[in-house]
Each structure stands twice: as structure tokens, then as C-alpha cells.
Design goal:
252 residues; alpha/beta; Rossmann fold; two-stranded antiparallel sheet; 13 strands; binds manganese (II) ion
Length: 252
Amino acid sequence: MQAPLIGITPDIAQQPAAHGPTDRLLLNLDYTEAIVAAGGIPIVLAPTIEPAAYLDLLDGLLLTGGGDVAPKCYGATTVHPETYGVSDLRDHFEMTLIRLALAADLPMLAICRGLQILNVALGGTLLQHIPDQLPHALNHRQQELGIPATDPAHDVSIRPETLLATILGSGRIRVNSYHHQAIADLATPLQLAATAPDGVIEAVELPHATFVLAVQWHPERLFRHHPLQAALFSALVDAARLKMRRRAARIP
Ligand code: MN
């Protein structure tokens, strides 16, 4: 049987090119390698078409990291000066894609910005800059601490009786950290699955969905040397395989 197809959302950025500033899709290969290692086929989703066009093709979805979500998406009227990498095209594409995917009960793993936009799409809000809004928080940008990308930087506590706990176990694990924003108000449908020692939300999930899981850390940078983190991608691909079989059998 064919392997499940996992749609992956790339970042969008304007870059210099020989013919002038050019809008480009950007995607770290770590994401596609993690999906392949888990047994899925990565499909990079171009945001230049309405996401409904992709929905029936996909068995699962991976929302990746990248620039900040535009604060207007969650009703903020001010924009913190540290805000970077905003793409209205990406925000629109992903917010629409998330709503369609949830309606179709498509398995979804959301990473970093992916966790943040999932929360926003469901009505939650974001802290625009952790150091200003939580002055006693840990430094969640491990590059500023000199910690290599393949090494974890802080603990998270995983709540028992969550989807995340069934994959990684409950209790404390160490994760990497490359974010300056975090969830402020958790969207009502989402459930807390892990927090950092400073209280920053590090994982959430959607209890009534088959598989919707979001983490604030970057398992795609860890999965090669930290097998526990590879289990997140395997869990997504396994859920997508079930979705693929149900679709083949025409079960909704
Ligand atoms: Mn963190």
C-alpha cells in the first residue's frame, strides 16, 4: 500500500535575487527528512492556491516553524518591535488550511509557529515577546545561550492522560527552544499538554480530534539523535495511515 501523504507548510520570505527582490518558499529539510524517516511522503504546500485544493489529496498535515503570526490575526492593535518575518499570505493560507483540516479530522502535528497559529485559528492569543511580557521566564532562544541546535535546552512537564503522554510518556523531558513568542490565552477547544518550568505553554492538543498535537519545541532538529522525538513524527504518520485507509474504504 502507498505511504501516507503529509502536507507541509513552508515559510515565505522575500530574498535578494539576480532579478531583484523575490518572494520565495523556504523549508528546512529537517522537516521533510523527519517525515520520510517516519514512513510518510512529504508534500510541500504552495500558498498560491486556496488550501481546499489540497485537502482531499492529503492524509496528514505538518505545520512548521517560521516568522511570527501577524498580531492583527488575534485582535492585537499593537505590534511589538521584535516581531519578525510576518507573511499575510502564509497566515491566511494556514488559518484557512487549519479550519478545513480540523473539519475533515485530518491528523495534524504543529511545530513552533504551527502551535501558535493553531491557537490563533481557534480563537486564542499570543505573547508577542516573552522577555517583555514574562520577565522571569527562561531564555527560550537557546542560540543566545550558545546551546547547539541538536541539544535540548530546558525541561518540559508532560501532563498525564494526554495524547502527548501516550507518545512521549508523562513527566519531565528535555527539549530545544527557538521561540520568542508563546501562547497567552489558550483557545477554548485546546487542552494543555506540556509546560516549561517557568509556566510557558510548550504543547497543546485537541481532545476531540483523532490526532491534533502541537509542540513549541523543534523535534525535527532532535529526531536523529533523540529517538523519543522521532516518535512524534511516527505518531503523525501512523494516524495519517489510518486516515488513508479509512478514505480508501470510503469511511468519513
Ligand atoms: Mn521553550
